[in-house]
Amino acid sequence: MAERVLGRVRAGGPPGLRVAAWALGSMHAALLTLVGLLLAFPGGELGNDLDGLSTGVGLGLYALLWAASLLGTAGALRRIGHDISASTDRVVGAGALWGGVAGAAFLIVGLLALAVYATVEGVGEGTVGATDTVFGAGVVAAGSVIGGAFAFAVGAMVGALLALVDVALLTAARAVAGGPRARP
Amino acid sequence: MDALAGSTLAIDSLVIDGHLLVRGVHVIAATLLVGGGVLAWAAWLDARSGAEGSRAALRLAIRYEWLAWGALGVLVATGVGNLGVFGEALPAPETRWGRALMVKLGLVLTLLLLSAVRVLALARLRVDAEGEAGDARMARAVRVVPRLYGVTALLGVGVVATAEVLAHG
């Protein structure tokens, strides 16, 4: 999965933009996590929240967020034709669309991974039979459709916000390196 | 014989202690991020001698950015893992440790955003370096880009210092 996502990032655009896609995709995942920590820690609940996560699951979740973020960033860059001078509207529109795709992908892959883990563990312990597996597959399919639509909406909002952050960062980068201004 | 048994036990604990592995990866990623950043900064300072040098510094900097953003992702993931080890014993935000953590998270956030400006500036330069305006753009870059590398390298050192306070302070 990660290789495929990285392949997509590497595939598109001029060489300078490949590294920008890698950096922005990585930055979005790190930024979302950091903002989450900065909001949760002062409330005093962070320890309890993290206590329920094993190290492996936590790292897996971050890897999934990172991969979804790279997918969304690469997709949004392709949508604007790798033109980093594109207007703010176009960048935010592309960010919203591909943020939605990344959000849905995050939820569906996460659900599938959880279902596979629960099935393998249940079969190993002898507590899951063929009927349970079919029922579980139905639950995952329904969850993917309903939850996927919700995750798309949430991802679209997050993607639009992150695109606005990117526009601000691009403006700062232009001030440093020069080059054409963003089109209005 | 006892010594041999002791060292085998120590190796076993190293292998099975996932938390130690996570901490080790965290430290290695920080080393690559900060050490590489200082090296890239030095390359840009060296590049002030001419256009050819600045193009070589740009190539090195792009290679560093591939590594640095991977290291940053690993740092954030393992950093959350390090916090998770505390579980419910995570110190409260109003303690000295809690305040140090907030400072560290603030520094990491600043480092993240400034590093993004840095890599986007490089991406612009990389795209334009081959064009007609390339030489003029590179001449401007060697004046400004080293400062960005300097600031982010110093911020990285600051993050490492707060990490030391959190671990041993």
Largest interface, with Cβ-Cβ < 8 Å?
A: A-B, 45 and 54 residues
Category by helix and strand content of chain B: mainly alpha
Radius of gyration of chain B: 20 Å
Oligomer: heterodimer
Number of strands of chain A: 0
Q: Number of DSSP helices of chain B?
A: 5
The number of helical elements of chain A comes to 6
Distance between the first and last residues' Cα of chain B:
38 Å
Number of strands of chain B: 0
| Low-pLDDT ranges of chain A | 1-11
Judging from the principal axes of the Cα atoms, what is the shape of chain A? elongated
Question: Helix proportion of residues of chain B, in percent?
Answer: over 70%
The overall pLDDT of chain A, averaged over residues, is 86
Q: Please, could you describe this protein's structure?
A:
The complex is a heterodimer of chains A (184) and B (169). With 184 residues, chain A is mainly alpha-helical. Chain A contains 6 helices and no strands. Chain A has helices spanning 2-11, 15-40, 46-51, 55-79, 88-125, 130-177. In chain A, helix 2 (15-40) packs across helix 4 (55-79), helix 4 (55-79) runs antiparallel to helix 5 (88-125) and helix 5 packs antiparallel against helix 6 (130-177). The longest helix of chain A has 48 residues, at 130-177. Chain A is elongated and about 65 Å long. The model of chain A is unreliable at 1-11 (pLDDT under 50). Chain B is mainly alpha-helical and 169 residues long. Chain B is built from 5 helices and no strands. In chain B, helix 2 (18-46) runs antiparallel to helix 3 (51-86), helix 3 (51-86) packs antiparallel against helix 4 (96-128) and helix 4 runs antiparallel to helix 5. The radius of gyration of chain B is 20 Å and the shape is elongated. The mean pLDDT of chain B is 85. At the A-B interface, helix 2, helix 3, helix 4 and helix 6 of A face helix 2, helix 3, helix 4 and helix 5 of B.
